[in-house]
Amino acid sequence: MFTGIITDIGKVRGIVAGADTRIEIICAYDADGIALGASIACSGPCMTVIEKGRDGAGNWFAVEASPETLKRTTIGAWKVGDRINLERALKVGDELGGHIVSGHVDGIAEVLRREDVAGKDGGSVRFTIRAPKELARFIAEKGSVALDGISLTVNDVDGTDFTINVIPHTLAHTTLGAAAAGTRLNLEIDQMARYVARLRDAPL
């Protein structure tokens, strides 16, 4: 489990395609404090650490992405040098600053527009985002979503489109600072919305 509060921005340093694609990510986390088999959310998807180390480039860890993960997330489009939002798994007693995030991506959303709020440079930014049609019903005004692993509050919803406001701190400390029209984002819907819908649709 995660909270959607990003604690580091890593950088892809290597990608090796295979039956499962190996990805190495440079990070600020102390490699000695990362256990093999640990879960780290990498721009949304929960990934398992299979190797780690420290060298001239700094601390790094490696994960593997299956063909299913590559198909259903933006990982298949990652390139060496890409910046990645990182969050370590939640520990008992940690502050829950965002919302409960599983790291199980539901689909890929796309940024339609980026607008400076009130036209002020350095202020908040409003993003208009389009969700996949089959996921739109799970997104509610003032509800929560995770985009590239970031916990965000929905401003309003119009069909498959919704808006979010992102404050300068979040823009500076996540990859959303570089997002623009056409940027594709890993989308995870709110856990509560998922289970309420399932209970509503289940036969009595």
What does this structure look like?
The chain has 204 residues and is mainly beta. It folds into two domains: 8-88, Elongation Factor Tu (Ef-tu), domain 3 (Beta Barrel), CATH 2.40.30; 107-201, Beta Barrel (Elongation Factor Tu (Ef-tu), domain 3), CATH 2.40.30. Helix content is 11%, strand content 42%. It has three helices and twelve strands, in the order E-E-E-E-E-H-E-E-E-E-E-E-H-E-H. It has helices at 67-72, 168-173, 191-201, and strands spanning 8-16, 21-27, 39-42, 46-55, 58-65, 83-88, 107-116, 125-130, 144-147, 150-158, 161-166, 184-189. A six-stranded antiparallel beta barrel has the order 1-2-5-4-3-6. The chain has a six-stranded antiparallel beta barrel with strand order 7-8-11-10-9-12. It is globular and about 45 Å long. The relative contact order is 0.19.
Helical run tally: 3
Give the distance, in angstroms, between the N- and C-terminal Cα atoms: 30 Å
Low-confidence stretches: none
CATH topology of the largest domain: Elongation Factor Tu (Ef-tu), domain 3
Quote the beta fraction.
35-45%
Cα-atom radius of gyration:
17 Å
Which whole number gives the mean pLDDT?
A: 92
Structure classification:
mainly beta
Return the domain count.
2
CATH class of the largest domain: Mainly Beta
Question: How would you write the strand order of the largest sheet?
Answer: 1-2-5-4-3-6
Major sheet characteristics: 6 strands, antiparallel, barrel
Shape type: globular
CATH architecture of the largest domain: Beta Barrel
- H and E order: EEEEEHEEEEEEHEH
Please provide the count of β strands. Answer: 12
